[in-house]
Amino acid sequence: MSKLKTLSNGQLIPVLGYGTWQNTDPQECIDGVKTALETGYRHIDTAQMYGNEELVGEGIRLSHVPRKDIFLTSKLDNPNHGYERAKKAIDDSLERLGTDYMDLFLIHWPEVEGHMEDWQESNIETWRALEEAYEAGKIKAIGLSNFKTKHLKNLLANCRIKPMVNQLRLHPGIAQKETVAMSREAGMVIQAWSPLSPLSQMLDDEAVVSMTEKYQKSLAQLLLRYSLQKDFIPLTKSVHKDRIKENAAIFDFKIDEEDMAYFDQWEWEGELFN
């Protein structure tokens, strides 16, 4: 399996990402990003909402990995919807990250406080700011996060440049099949956030435990591999060096069809999306 995918505009994106959600302890966040890059990750995912862009930027600098070798993503915070606010927010992210471009920038959520009634127009105007930043070279690729079918229909009918990515919550028990299908039909690559969510619920599942023995892999590695084989880009996070390294070791095995089918039919017990 290739460790890179090609976006619709020709940009290459690594198929495994290091996520930084909830990594707000300064030293832990910096060290986590630095360790991930030293381990071999080349795809770092953050967001304005996470409040850690400056820390992520520092971790990148301390890693001494050349900026051109890193695929760096951030996302628009909810209060920054709208054309003017989004334009400023993009520049603010660049400053906090300490870089003159981002490889990918996403609208984080489609329906936000202050725009619950006019989300259609809000998303169109916000997207216009992303399109302009893309054309100016500030962003190498633009996309969406948590956009479902109704949100996609609205944006796709009113954009000049099609989104290249849709980042969704995806793991056994949450498939979002219609959204995934529509996104792919429009040329988007799918990223999976929280791909390890089922881990705690699967610890006592005999079939899954037997899989860890069969493949000689941890449950986390199985869940990340499952995501890869569904043709998603999983975003995994940890601040522990051993786990960061373990989560990257998912390219030397393949889950067979029977076990993939078991994961496909597994039932999630909990909130559906958030």
UniProtKB/TrEMBL annotation:
GO molecular function: oxidoreductase activity, acting on the CH-OH group of donors, NAD or NADP as acceptor
Catalytic site positions: Y50 (proton donor)
Superkingdom of this protein's organism: Bacteria
Keywords noted in UniProt: NADP, Oxidoreductase
Pfam families, per database record: Aldo_ket_red (PF00248)
InterPro entries named among the record's database cross-references: AKR, Aldo/ket_reductase_CS, NAD(P)_OxRdtase_dom_sf, NADP_OxRdtase_dom
Residue numbers binding substrate: H108
Coiled coil segments of this chain: none
Site for Lowers pKa of active site Tyr, residues: K75
CDD domains attached to this UniProt entry: AKR_AKR1-5-like
Domain named NADP-dependent oxidoreductase: residues: 16-265
EC nos: 1.-.-.-
Annotated protein name in UniProt: Putative oxidoreductase YtbE
Organism for this UniProt entry: Jeotgalibaca dankookensis
